[in-house]
Every structure is written in structure tokens, then in C-alpha cells.
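Ticket #4471: structure export looks truncated?
Reporter: QA, pipeline team
Priority: medium

Steps to reproduce: submit the single chain below to the structure queue and open the exported record.
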Amino acid sequence: MVVTSRDVARLAGVSQPTVSRALRDDARVSDATKLRVREAAQLLGYVPSEAGRALSSGRTRRVGLLLTDLDNQFYSHIIAPVHRELEARGYQLMLQTESADNDTVVERLVANGLDGVILATTTVDSVVPLRLQDRGLPFVYFNRTGAMVDADATVVDPVPGYREAVGRAARLGHRRVAAVLGPSNTSTAQSREAALRDALHANGLALSESDTRRVPYDTTEGEAAAAELLAADPRATLLFCGNDVVAYGALNAAHRAGLRVPDDLSIIGFDDLPEAAWPLIDLATVGYDIAGMARAAAGLIVRRIEDPAAERESERFGSAFVPRRTLAAAPSL
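Actual output as written to the record:
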């Protein structure tokens, strides 16, 4: 027989609404009554219905994490910290995967009865933030931001990391630089390119457009672009990559071209994913606190759900250069 809240109410000697309020830790219920209700619920093996909670509170306590860049390995590293932070705050993580970023996505998010959404793969021209705002569904940006709507966000400041990386490369004698950057319709690619170019300029270096490629954050795309650059300009001694995933492809391209890393070519990534530290890869990269940024995004969406009128907040995470094997002194040409 299914145990209901009415059964708990009878055993605890209270009304059924009091049971619901007591199990929600409502301040209107005394501590003594809460204890009595909880003991009755435990004795009967009563488990509150999530659907019932949603009806009574107007919330499902479910938060979506929207991913549309499904081939980017970066996102597998944020799911666990987002889940743990939401769980600690009494919310469930609902992974929402789509192959496109459009109006249809918004309708599905709304239909899933979410309390809020973390947008992790937003493009600068995406209409999703605008549509979510129109529908009144709270959201925050993680890592990438959109141009149409200002919202709570957790982002990375690439400036300090690139200053360190370029400064180190310049001292190692690198003068001919190429780059495989991220897609130009993402805020991450835009901010990283601007920071990289500024750092190069500050060290008397430059990145020509002919030595630049912009590709999706994908290993295969990174390999193809790096191979094209290396074939077009074999004088390049240092290759910057838009993220670690792209850098993995660049390492493959160098290997296929018969180039030794770092003896013939140095490669620098961005993100410092766990795999970048593997001995077989040992990638020099620009890193930051990915897990901390993911937890912060979870905290921001809960704050926005529970206080819709709160001031907009943006948390900016610093970056730092992580020197590893793939950066060494420039070869003599």
C-alpha cells in the first residue's frame, strides 16, 4: 500500500497541510511539530512526491544545463560540479542536449518544467536568451555569453594567462606565431583572440590574418586547420590554440607532418582540462578554475530563481599560464 501524507498526518496528529509545510521546513511550523512529522514520515517510510511539491510551491526544483556544442569535450568536465552544487542547494540537474540553438530549444526547455537554465554553449548571435527572457524562465550564462540579453554570468578573463604565456614564449625566442582560434560567433573566441593579440603586441610580436584560422572547438577541426597552417607557413615555431580540444588536434597535425613537439614546433592551448596534464600530452596551456566556475554558475541560477529581482551579477575568473612540455625554446631557423 502506498503511504500518503494523510497517513503521516494521522500518525503525527496534525493536518495534511501541516505535514507538507513541516517537510518543507516552513518557518510557520514549530520545531517540535516538524520533529513529530519527520519521525512519523520515517516510521511509515513516506517519501514526498516531487510532483506534489511542485504543485504546492510552484517550483519543480529542477535546473537545466543546456549543451548544443555536443562534440566539445570541455563540457563533460562541468556536469559533476554543477550537479553537486545544485544538489547541495536542494535542486536537481537536468541535462538538456540539443544539436541547434534556436526557438525550438526554448519551447522544449519550457515544456520540461524547469525552474531555470544554465546556458553553457551560447553563441553571441543566439536568440535563446531573448526568448527565455520573453517566457520569464530564469537563466545564467556559463563561460560564453550572448549579445542580445545581459544576464548573470560566470566568465574567464584570458588577459593574465595570455600575458604570462606570450611573455614566456618571447623569452624563449619565438618570433613567428600562428593560431587556430575558436569560432568567431562565440564570446570566448572573441575575448581570447583580443587578449592574445594584445599580449603579442606588448612583446613586439604580431599574428597575421594569413597565419590565423577560426574553427569550431573540435579536435578534428583543429587538426585540419593546424595542418593547413603548417603547410602554408613552415616557419612558424609557435602555435596558439583556441582551447585544449583544438590543441589536441594540432598535436596530431604536427605528428602527421613529421614535426617534433616542442623541438620543431611549440603548442599552447587554453582551459587546462585534466587530460592536458596527462604525461602523453603534457600540454602547455592557459588554465583557470573550471570546477569553481561551474559551481558559481549553479549558485547564480539558484539565486536568480529564488530572488528574481536580484541585481545582475557577473563572476569573472582569472587565468594563469601552465607551462608544460609542449612549449620550449624556438628552434634555430
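Status: closed, not a bug. The export was complete when the record was re-opened. Leaving a note from the reviewer for reference: The chain has a mean pLDDT of 91.
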